[in-house]
């Protein structure tokens, strides 16, 4: 995925907290955080929302916009001891002049450039798994276990294209990313 990763330290801390909060002390007495209603496997924890400002990258690898967003993490413990993590982003963007986000897409209808100052909204998610003693996140390494879907839209503003989609599966050498449409003046 071309979007820059923000808050990796916070994410690791969140998972350490989640692992601690969901851990079973193993004394077999049916007490502690791993037992009781809503505890243990399948329990969901929410972190955020956090305010984030970040550059956004398009199909050419270029910075095409600055995003201002609310970012939320949901963590669910799986039966195998791993954690499913879903990051949800929702916010606004302001474009930089230059190549549009879909300019290097080779299929479908898309534009080539976008003017500076075009504003719009976006929302989407990134979902992967935290596993192992080193708390490896599947979306940060070579893995087929990552999924994401982001939708950007802007109305009016003399745009030829008003919607851009960045979606896919995997990470690293397993990445299969697709771009559809564009946010573009020409």
Compact description:
The protein has 186 residues and is mainly beta.
Would you give an account of this structure?
The chain starts with 7 loop residues before the first helix and ends with a strand. A hairpin with a 5-residue loop joins strand 2 (63-77) and strand 3 (83-95). The chain has one domain (8-184). It is mainly beta and 186 residues long. The protein has one helix and ten strands. The strands form two sheets. Strands 1, 2, 3, 6, 7, 8, 9 and 10 form an eight-stranded antiparallel beta sheet that branches. A two-stranded antiparallel ribbon has the order 4-5.
Shape: elongated
Tell me about the biggest sheet? 8 strands, antiparallel
**Total beta-strand segments:** 10
Strand content: over 45%
Spatial gap, N to C terminus: 24 Å
Count of DSSP H/I helices = 1
Summarize the helix and strand pattern as letters: HEEEEEEEEEE
Detail the poorly predicted runs: 1-39
Return the average pLDDT rounded to an integer: 83
Task: Specify the helix fraction band.
Answer: under 10%
Lay out the secondary structure.
Elements: H1 8-22, E1 44-57, E2 63-77, E3 83-95, E4 98-99, E5 113-114, E6 119-131, E7 136-137, E8 143-153, E9 161-171, E10 176-184
Looking at this protein, list some descriptive labels.
disordered N terminus, mainly beta, 1 helix, elongated, eight-stranded antiparallel β-sheet, single chain, 186 residues, two-stranded antiparallel sheet
């Amino acid at each position: 995925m071309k979007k820059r990763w923000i808050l990796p330290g916070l994410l690791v801390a969140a998972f350490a907290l989640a692992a601690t909060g969901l851990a079973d002390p193993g004394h077999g007495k049916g007490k502690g955080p791993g037992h009781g209603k809503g505890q243990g496997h399948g329990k969901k924890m929410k972190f955020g929302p956090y305010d984030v400002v970040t550059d956004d990258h398009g199909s050419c690898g270029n910075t095409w916009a600055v995003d201002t967003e609310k970012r939320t993490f949901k963590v669910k413990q799986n039966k195998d001891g791993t954690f499913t993590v879903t990051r949800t982003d929702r916010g606004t963007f302001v474009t930089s002049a230059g190549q549009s986000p879909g300019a290097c897409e080779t299929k479908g209808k898309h534009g080539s450039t976008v003017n500076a100052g075009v504003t719009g909204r976006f929302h989407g998610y990134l979902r992967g798994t935290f596993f192992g003693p080193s708390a490896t996140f599947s979306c940060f390494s070579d893995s087929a276990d990552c999924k994401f879907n982001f939708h950007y839209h802007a109305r009016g503003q003399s745009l030829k294209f008003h919607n851009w989609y960045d979606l896919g599966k995997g990470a690293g050498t397993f990445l299969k990313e697709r771009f559809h449409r564009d946010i573009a003046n020409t």
